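Re: your question from the hallway

Yes, I did run it. Sequences:
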Amino acid sequence: MHWLLWSVVIITVLMTTTAWALWLERKLAARMGSRLGPTMVGRHGLLQPIADLLKLLQKEDILPEAADGALFNLAPILTAVFAIATVAVVPFGEGVIAADLDIGVLWVLAFGGLMVIPVWMAGWASNNKFALLGGMRAVAQAVSYEVPLVLASMVPVILAGSMSMTDIVHYQQQHSWIALWPTLPGLPAFLLFLLASLAESNRIPFDIPEAESELVAGVSTEYTGMKFGLFYMAEYIHTLVSSAIGAALFLGGWSGPFAPGLHWMLLKTLGLFVFIYVVRWTLLRFRQDQLMRLAWVWLVPMGLVLVFMAAVVVVWGGA
Amino acid sequence: MMQVAFGLVAACLLLAALFSIGSKNLVHGVLWLGATLAMTAVLYLMLDAPFLAGIQLLLYVGGVMTLMVFGVMLTRRHADLAVLREQRRKSRGAFVAAALFGTLAGATVTTPGLDAPAAGSATTVELGRALLTEHLLAFEVVSVLLLGALIGSVVLARKRDFGATR
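Structure:
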């Protein structure tokens, strides 16, 4: 029953963290724009996420007349389920993991890839031009960036010789962070992973499926109340989990001196999370064709070279 | 316990497959196909093949589904995505399906040793090693076949492209 307990604990902690990650992002965005951000509800606006949630729950639930009802309702649920499913294999510490699967990395990649289906479903079921365009863009982007993401994740897998998250962290405890050494496939692979997971979770500069200045709100145009809330939450969970996976695969996971492992894991995860949001509020949005060119002309060949290098390091450098 | 679970999963799989071919709406059909493929992944999990299940989710549900969605969106206007169904071909289709089922079922039943318990589930490492040593030839033949298909599709697509530009 140990895994059941951890599942409940981890999901609860994740939901709470997501709420305050939202607060963190709003504060960060505000400070970067010389604003104050939320200040009214609670000290420093710390209770703002609760107020937001209560507001979302009270909103009217609107189902557009021409929408495909079943798919319209199913899409936000599936998005949230797939986002939460990836948390199962995130190692927060020695043994603090909901399911230490033999195929941990594959599991994350599979569910990350599935995320696009409910997004497209929402775009199609809304029966709205902007939503459909957003959905199409999401599909095109996911197909392109899934490939470099898989290739980048293969570098730690090849170096550690295992797809289990725990094994990869153990490997880094015995050697060093993969982002640091071996530097040549390690560091560029880490950067590639960050870029591709930015694209996977639809963050600026890769947020063309939503693109509020072009597409109203993209796939979530027709959604109201808590259904919109689920999309919003899933996006934040996905970003948080991507940060956690990046920390585990490339930054040594829970290993670190002085403090218990959980602190280090959370610190590294939050570090990557903040980095992603600094990028979001710094850069502009790419155009669709620029995005595709970047993925296929630069990132995919780069990923292939990095995987090859990792194999060379293992054969000639390692054992 | 396992039998009941298998029954449930198999029933869901068959239902999803039926909906997939039965739905008049092409988009619904594709999504039901996705459900069918996902249920197949669950079957793999129950057969102690987690790696295969992961690959099934990543490639079929994640990849192939996405491409099919693309195909559906590019074919014609979305407002009336209805599947044309011809009644008189139904019996022929049923015959082919029955023949295929009979062949597969016959092969499964007559192959000896299939009901023996598996010798423990293979880890991903063992699986990779087996693919690159014992089954290297089959592995390479399949990759050449896939490469051929890839190049072939590019050639076919390019030909139409050239026609359009010149």
